[in-house]
Amino acid sequence: QVQLVESGGGSVQPGGSLRLSCAASGFSLDDYTIAWFRQAPGKEREGVACISRHDRRTYYSDSVKGRFTISRDDTQNTVYLQLNSLAPEDTAVYYCAVDPSVMASMYPLEESSYNYWGQGTQVTVSS
After folding, report:
1. Cα Rg for the chain, rounded, in angstroms?
2. What separation in angstroms does the CA of 28 have from each of 5, 35, 89, 109?
3. DSSP 29
4. Cβ neighbours, 10 Å, residue 3
5. Tens digit of pLDDT for each residue in 86-115?
6. How many Cβ atoms sit within 10 Å of the Cβ of residue 82?
7. What is the per-residue pLDDT for 13?
8. What is the DSSP string of 65-91?
9. CB 53: neighbour CB atoms within 10 A?
């Protein structure tokens, strides 16, 4: 059974950092493209970071590039998102998503590319 469990969210001041984790079970993460999405109240879900299955390349949205870093530890079956230089506009629920298909590699930040999702973890940035 495919399962993804996010953790590491919390409250932080502007300029602070967090590291989010997504632990996978029931499958080998090595065979999947992995992405992080976020959704703020009243806004649509946004793809922010991805690391592909086939060539391990990374992709970032313009809004987070240079501040966020996605990584994967296939041995531990865990995905990470390092969030640095956080700003209030980064406040959202952050979701881990995975998919083995070529579509995820071709369209890594598109919500429709992913079939498997975690439950989300809240990140709040405020002073």
Report:
1. 13
2. 14, 15, 34, 21
3. G
4. 12
5. 999 999 999 999 999 999 989 999 999 999
6. 15
7. 98
8. TTTEEEEEETTTTEEEEEE-S--GGG-
9. 22
